Amino acid sequence: MTQEETFKALVAHCKEYGFIFPSSEIYDGLAAVYDYGQLGAELKNNIKRYWWLAMTRLNENIVGIDSCVFMHPKTWVASGHVAAFNDPLIDNRDSKKRYRADNLIEEYLQKIEEKIEKEVAKGRKRFGESFDEAKFRETNPNILREKAKYDEVHQRYLNAENNNDLAEYKQIILDCGITDPISGTRNWTDVRQFNLMFSTQVSNTGASDDKIYLRPETAQGIFVEYLNVQKTSRMKIPFGIAQIGKAFRNEIVARQFIFRMREFEQMEMEFFCKPGTEMEWFAKWKENRMKWHVNLGMGAENYRFHDHEKLAHYANAATDIEFNFPFGFKELEGIHSRTDFDLGNHQRLSGKKIQYFDPETGETYVPYCVETSIGVDRMVLAVLSHAYEVQPLEGGESRVVLHIPAPVAPVKVAVLPLLKTDERLTSKAQEIVDILKYDVAYQYDEKDSIGRRYRRQDAIGTPFCVTIDHETLEDNCVTIRDRDTMEQVRVPIAEIHDRLVKATSLTNLLRNL
Ligand code: ATP
Q1: 95 alpha carbon to ligand 1 midpoint, in Å?
Q2: Cα(374)–Cα(233) distance, integer angstroms
Q3: Left if phi > 0, otherwise alpha if psi is -120 to 50, otherwise beta: which for 135?
Q4: Alpha-carbon distance 433 to 412, whole Å?
Q5: How far is Cα 332 from Cα 440, in angstroms, rounded to an integer?
Q6: How much is the pTM?
Q7: Which H or E run contains 448?
Q8: Buried-exposed string 409-435: b where 16+ CB fall within 10 A, e elsewhere
Q9: What is the pLDDT of residue 164?
Q10: With contact defined as beta carbons under 8 Å apart, do 479 and 489 qualify?
Q11: Pocket residues for ligand 1 (CB within 6 Å)?
Q12: What is the pLDDT of residue 69?
């Protein structure tokens, strides 16, 4: 299967097994909005819990809050979203499709990079052992030509971004001969700015000051509550405030399943520090967040940092943690050094003093802030896409298995009596359910052959199956089958609780951080 086919199969699998459904499907769906089904909700909750505990339990100086989606409209003037939360859009007149102009150019640049890498791979094959990659990159005429093209377009693109030059975006698209992937034509409109915030009204008088926004990020709830939290928690700088919650963005090009949604969830942490120390904290949080990801066991090679060349209006340093999604390395989390931009602006617009008095030095200042911001849904997609495998088995068969890291798997153990018709086995299985149910998410299943039941559990990523057979009645042992290796071991019933808790609980994952 190509990567695209695998991704399509994953999306279908998520629906078939109750992880993720397109929203309002009986009315033909609503673009870029998805609902989580019974298993997706569990997976998502586990991921949120892993993040929440890592932030608030493992750091004495981080507390969590829960602020509202609706906020005073001035919030979004202070944050810069009213003036600058825009995407440059372009339409193709033939396909009638709308695209982000920056994305079209980035994809063009990515294709050049891929061409260069292909050329390098060819060289490696041709020269074998004696291949000198650095020299090859410096001297191969095809690579040099592509590299020069890349550098020229890249520089123009950066200038267009920095100067917010919409005409230049279009000119780059025309000069590079970028065509619409659907119509194949270059019949483009001009590039326009489009604000991404959704708005609604607080009352029904229709007056213009009724207008209120659905928050496009959760961070501003933290900034606006900074004073309340600092005072009531008596936290001393440096300290952090964490929050998980919904955010809304009117994404124009909403593609790639739950990667880019109009309603999504964020896990954000704002770490307040003394001005001048922010780079140190920025470096610490980069390291800390990468550790959190790698600790899940999905392969360090599947993550990389991507430092921003162009900084957002509020940042003095920024990086993305990118994950190797089925459609390439893409942003999973952002880490930004936001200076005193947000608190400073809220202070100015609200007229309220938002300052910190440092009892040790006697100084008063507006704290600086380092933010870590990750999309819950992108994290769910990272886990599911990494987990999904169609695995060939002996005898020409295959199984679909989700290798979800056990501590975040929606179901940790399946309890399976070998025969549903033998009451001694089913009642023993119920005893085991009673032992496990308070600490371990389980499913009880007695239908169909044991082989089919194993397949069903593999397909939803259950790390362990406990089978109760006739021997169990004699030796009080059960078989535990491992999802990934398919190996089976006999274990006394008295040991299964501790064994399964140890293998699947978040606690051990957190201990490794
Ligand atoms: P992108 O460049 O992909 O649009 P962004 O830089 O606008 O993302 P941020 O504003 O830094 O994203 O948001 C922080 C995190 O929130 C992102 O790293 C991502 O995980 C998540 N996120 C942002 N927009 C969406 C969306 N439309 N759907 C799902 N998750 C999102």
Answers
A1: 27
A2: 25
A3: alpha
A4: 12
A5: 29
A6: 0.87
A7: none
A8: bbbbbbbbbbeeeeeebbebbeebbeb
A9: 83
A10: yes
A11: 249, 251, 260-261, 264, 266, 331-334, 373-375, 377-378
A12: 97
Q: Distance from the CA of 249 to the center of ligand 1, in angstroms?
A: 9
Determine the pLDDT at residue 208: 67
375 CA to centre of ligand 1 in angstroms: 6
Distance from the alpha carbon of residue 261 to the mean position of ligand 1, in angstroms = 9
In this prediction, residue 206 carries a pLDDT of: 66
Q: How far is the CA of 49 from the centre of ligand 1 (A)?
A: 20
- The mean predicted confidence, pLDDT, of the chain is 94
Nearest CA to ligand 1 atom 9: 334
Using 70 as the pLDDT threshold, list the residues of the chain that sit under it. 205-208, 254
Q: How far is CA 469 from CA 423, 431, 435, 482, in A?
A: 11, 14, 18, 17
The rounded distance, in Å, linking the Cα atoms of 142 and 152 is 16
Render pLDDT for 460-487 as a digit per residue (tens, 0 to 9). 999 999 999 999 999 999 999 999 999 9
Q: Can you read off the two tokens belonging to residue 421?
A: 């018709």
Residue nearest to atom 19 of ligand 1 (CA): 375
φ/ψ region of 164 (left if φ > 0, alpha if ψ in -120 to 50, else beta) reads left
Domains, the chain: 1-82+196-400 (3.30.930.10), 86-194 (3.30.40.230), 411-511 (3.40.50.800)
DSSP string, 70-129: B--THHHHHTTHHHH-EEEEEEBTTT--EEEHHHHHHHHHHHHHHHHHHHHHHHHHHHGG
Among left, alpha and beta (phi > 0; psi -120 to 50; other), residue 326 is alpha
The owner of tokens 């082989």 is 451
Ligand 1: residue of 266, 310, 376 to mutate (most ligand atoms within 8 A of CB) is 266
